[in-house]
What does this fold into?
Amino acid sequence: MGRVNRHLLRLGQALHARAYHFTTVTPLTHSRVNARSENAWANDLPGVFGWSRPFQRETIGEELFGLLDSANALLETPDGGWLSTVRWSSLGDELYVHSRYPTQDEDAVFFGPDTYRFAQAIEQHLHQQPGKPLHRVADIGCGAGPGALLVAQADSAAEVFALDINPLALEYTEVNARLAGIGNVRVLRSDLLDAVSGQFDLILSNPPYMLDPQQRPYRHGGGSLGAELAFTLIDAALPRLAPGGSLLLYTGVAMVAGRDPLLEHCKAYLAGQDFVWSYREMDPDLFSEQLLEPGYEAVERIAAVVLTITRS
It folds into this structure.
């Protein structure tokens, strides 16, 4: 563990002490709920730290306001209110700090429904291999750190590397790990696996998979339909798997004319190689509003999929 942002850590501890809880929804749901007239201003902690609504100082009290101020996580609004530049979301019993809604900045750290599905995929994978030691684990593109932290909690003897190209993501992962009392996570700035050596018993990733005109790292998947990063990740991860080691990839796939480009890629790429793999759709249709965006004219649906590749 590196140097942690102690002001954000103290804020997370204070929210824990107040039994704060928030489930992060899709951006479309978020915008619709916030558009209701009664939600123009926050009147409770979820309104401030979950829904990212403007608030008055007295809504959160002097302690929390002071912690936000010390963490440089306050924005003043033109009408005399305030905004928190961070959000806090619940996953199990833990809280995770990440970027405020809307996530538009170049270095935004995303947390949302995909995070919950990714967590389910990890928990299912670990449940299917009870007692299997995980000596070294890597979470590529760790974001706020949920993948790395879930594995680190499940196996305290594992050395878990949380990797991301975004320094803000690494800062938030440090805070979230410390808040959860986890000490076996190493946070490193890395493009894919470039900053770490050796082999791994488990490599995790929940990469971005959308087409983004601004090519923001947390959102843009690359290629014609957002799948390029998944292809690149598979190519980088497989040579680094230890014998019996697995790549667990959760991502979204844009389906065109009934075809799944990621599944087709895996069938061709893995043919004749010494790997066992499985592929399943976790959710057949998500983020339907994305189909209104340029580049998606021929896309029928975007499916959430889980790909597991294990070295024999």
